[in-house]
Write a structure and sequence with these properties.
Elements lengths: L4 H5 L35 H5 L1 H25 L6 H13 L3 H21 L2 H29 L10
Length: 159
């Protein structure tokens, strides 16, 4: 709920979202990007109308998001899409909490910037050169190992 809802509507009813200019907005308008979406709770109106129901909703969203984030953290050292699951949990939190919405906006912006940098021809050329150089170094080291020790395994297994 917005902190300034009491000033705008006399404290009656659920808060209406504000646009970037401070005007009360209606439904989605043309030209509004995902980045311009309003911050705050996206709970249905009947849930936001009751304080007790809204707090219960927020606790439920927090618990579900926490479970997903913890599962993602567990998946980091184990097989599984850990970071993807963590960001999924953050997206669940972002349906209710402004801080999570801001973190996701920042993350989305940084990922987009990194993707744009990666598509830059100079950066791609540098990455290809570094990859080929690394592969050549690894091939030379493997060749030296095979030349020096042969193809036998370093452990001894007796049948």
């Amino acid at each position: 709920m917005n902190a300034d809802s009491d000033e705008r509507d006399g404290g009656a009813g659920p808060a209406k979202p504000l646009s970037a200019t401070g005007d009360v907005t209606g439904e989605a308008t043309e030209g509004v990007t995902r980045e311009d979406r309003e911050l705050g709770s996206r709970a249905p109106g009947f849930i936001r109308a009751s304080r007790a129901l809204h707090v219960s909703w927020q606790v439920g969203v927090f618990v579900v998001g926490l479970a997903v984030v913890v599962a993602g953290i567990i998946m980091l050292p184990l097989p599984g899409p850990g970071w993807l699951v963590i960001f999924g949990g953050m997206a669940i939190w972002a349906t209710e909490f402004v801080w999570a919405q801001l973190v996701l906006r920042w993350t989305r912006r940084k990922v987009t910037e990194a993707a744009q940098r990666a598509l830059d021809p100079k950066v791609r050329r540098r990455n290809i050169i570094l990859t080929v150089t690394g592969l050549v170094i690894i091939a030379v080291l493997v060749g030296i190992y095979v030349w020096k020790f042969g193809v036998t395994m370093p452990w001894k297994i007796h049948e």
